[in-house]
Specification:
Blueprint (H helix, E strand, L loop, with lengths): L12 E8 L2 H12 L2 E4 L7 E6 L2 E8 L10 E6 L3 H10 L3 E8 L4 E7 L5 E7 L14 E8 L2 H11 L3 E4 L6 E7 L2 E8 L11 E7 L3 H10 L3 E9 L2 E7 L5 E7 L2
Parallel strand pairs: 1-4, 5-8, 9-12, 13-16
Antiparallel strand pairs: 1-5, 2-3, 3-4, 6-7, 7-8, 9-13, 10-11, 11-12, 14-15, 15-16
Length: 257
């Protein structure tokens, strides 16, 4: 297993995972889009695979039980040194814990919760599995951003949870806060007001690096997914927002040099 040996600073997004109804079909979609290959495990999570790119583990995909009708969505995991303490802090800061904390074999210990506005995220206490590696290359997650109504209240939740420094964007028409750790930007919170889709509610968005955003947008639809936001240029690069065949929303980006 080829992985980084350095542990992630607590609060840093270190992994993304997706729970779906059709594991095989989902592997085919992301394998064709990103060039991922797959390795099974850990067994404690049920039918579950880790996606690999050039032998670097980049994401996880699991299968939902047939009787669980949950929203299909990419979930970011934030690194922690103690999943149990972080779960207690989630509750103390106004969130909820829906799964765990529980052991994922020898890989680590995890919990899944929701923040003060209901957006779902995970926490990961690494053991043998540190998290994603190979970041920055096409096919890897490069950014995670919370899409919500407004940043102020939920920003307090995350700053209560981890030692983030909030850096707001100074703009009359943009409600955006960057979460920083040790001087480094690690995630964002984007307040979009009433533009937030009612069917999604507040949610985390994962951005995957891609060589050609326009080509990827076409490829997504060819593979049975949907184009939700056409390719456009931004200060951070060219990007598009799409959904896989089961409706999991994510963005693809060609980061600016």
């Amino acid at each position: 297993m080829t992985e980084s040996t350095a542990r992630h600073t607590p609060g840093t997004p270190c992994w993304v995972s997706l729970m779906v109804h059709g594991l095989g079909a989902t592997q085919e979609f992301y394998g064709a889009l990103f060039g991922w290959e797959f390795r099974p495990g850990p067994e404690q999570l049920g039918p579950y695979v880790r996606a690999l790119l050039d032998d670097h583990e980049v994401a996880g995909i699991g299968q939902l039980p047939a009787d669980r009708h949950l929203p299909v969505a990419w979930t970011p995991y934030l690194a922690t040194d103690d999943a149990d303490t972080t779960a207690d802090t989630i509750r103390h800061c106004g969130g909820t814990v829906g799964v765990g904390p529980l052991d994922a074999g020898e890989a680590g210990r995890m919990a899944i919760g929701s923040d003060s506005v209901g957006a779902v995220f995970g926490v990961w206490q690494a053991a043998q599995h540190i998290g994603a590696s190979g970041a920055g290359r096409p096919g890897t997650p490069v950014w995670n951003e919370l899409i919500t109504h407004e940043t102020a209240s939920v920003g307090k939740f995350y700053s209560c949870l981890f030692e983030y420094h909030e850096q707001p964007v100074v703009s009359a028409d943009l409600d955006y806060v960057t979460l920083r750790l040790d001087g480094r930007a690690v995630a964002g919170i984007h307040g979009v007001g009433d533009v937030l889709p009612r069917e999604h509610g507040p949610h985390w968005m994962t951005y995957f690096e891609i060589e050609d955003v326009d080509e990827a947008a076409v490829r997504v639809t060819e593979l049975g997914g949907d184009l939700l936001r056409a390719p456009c240029d931004s200060a951070h690069g060219r990007l598009a927002t799409v959904a896989d065949p089961e409706g999991a929303v994510f963005s693809v980006v060609r980061s600016a040099d």
